Amino acid sequence: MIIQKTESSRLSSFDKNNFNFGDTFVDHMIICEYEDGKWGDVKLMPYGPLQFSPANMTFNYGQACFEGMKAYRDANNDVFLFRPEKNFERINKSASRLAMPEIPYEVFMNGLKALVDTDRLWIPQGEGYSLYLRPLIFATSEMLKASVSYKYMFAIIATPAKAYYTKPVSVLISDYYSRAANGGVGFAKAAGNYAGAFYPTHLANQKGYDQIIWTDDATHSYFEESGTMNVFVRIEDTIYTPPTSERILDGVTRDSFIQLAKKNGIEVVVDKIPVETVVKAHKEGKLKEVWGVGTAVVTSRFEAIGYNDEKLMLPEISDEDSFAIKLKHELVGIQSNQAEDPFGWRIKVEKGFTDSLAK
Ligand SMILES: *Cc1c(COP(=O)(O)O)cnc(C)c1O
């Protein structure tokens, strides 16, 4: 690894009580370039802008994909990643679908660990804090030919994160727009999937909803995802989530929730969820909770679901009685080294890891 540490750390001007998620970046970033059919040396360098021409193929053809994951720091300054192999496997699935080169395991893992080790003091300590990590791969050839790029860049950047109290959201069931279709790129974290979702989401916002419940593109009659999160429905004391597919992204949080629920003796059904079933359960008073799960906020509970011209109000449920909150606390406890980790999900990043890679 090529290690180029900053001589002017910005850490002393970082105030953990006053920052916004996503616009404050840690001192360093990881860069690795692909050219002539191979990935080069991994480089740790000061965070900052890079220069690209408007002819860059990412800007023109959208050949780009990314990951989202978190690291936590405990009271001993030990820092932990959470199930990073899942993100490694997924970024390569995304890359393959977009005809981009896969990245080697060491490039991804050493890059992540080096960044987290070097900037470990940027991870705020205390309840609810973490470091959000964003690995990404994008085309860098300058060429206006609609074909695959021959040069790529892998980068990892990181932004401190805090769990703000997130109030329950209202969501609108999509009866027209789709996030994904069979044979498409919905299972991949393709940058363009997000661009395609912004406009329908904006329309939902105008109708007074925070997010969209994406339904199957063919019939719009099954629950698929919620915004950029996987979705769980609780009817009486059973929780339901749709199976992952070509259209439904295989979320790490979703998988972790399923395993944690089973460990708690909660019945989990992984099967298609007809909108009609949810509406019927609501009418009968059996619909208890519906929530989204994803790395960024872990859990987002719903207070209302818009369907046709109806607005189904979900019952108010205390934090003690909520499966969503219980599972979220257990997950964050494992992630942040506050709880036992029976699954072996937590990966400690050794102090001095970066310097051990210096050549
Ligand atoms: C990233 C993402 C998720 C959540 O995945 P996690 O691994 O849990 O963060 C769910 N749906 C979509 C569309 C996503 O892009």
Describe this structure in words.
The chain has 359 residues and is α+β, with helices and mostly antiparallel strands. The chain folds into 2 domains: 2-162 and 343-356, Aminotransferase class 4, branched-chain amino acid transferase, N-terminal domain (D-amino Acid Aminotransferase, Chain A, domain 1, 2-Layer Sandwich), CATH 3.30.470; 169-317, D-amino Acid Aminotransferase, subunit A, domain 2 (D-amino Acid Aminotransferase, Chain A, domain 2, Alpha-Beta Barrel). It is 24% helix and 30% strand. It is built from 8 helices and 20 strands. The strands form 2 sheets. Strands 1, 2, 3, 4, 5, 6, 7, 8, 9 and 20 form a 10-stranded mixed sheet that branches. A 6-stranded mixed beta barrel has the order 10-11-12-13-17-18, surrounded by 4 helices. Strand 18 (298-307) and strand 19 form a beta hairpin. Helix 5 crosses helix 7. The longest helix has 16 residues, at 191-206. The radius of gyration is 21 Å and the shape is globular. The mean pLDDT is 96. It binds pyridoxal-5'-phosphate.
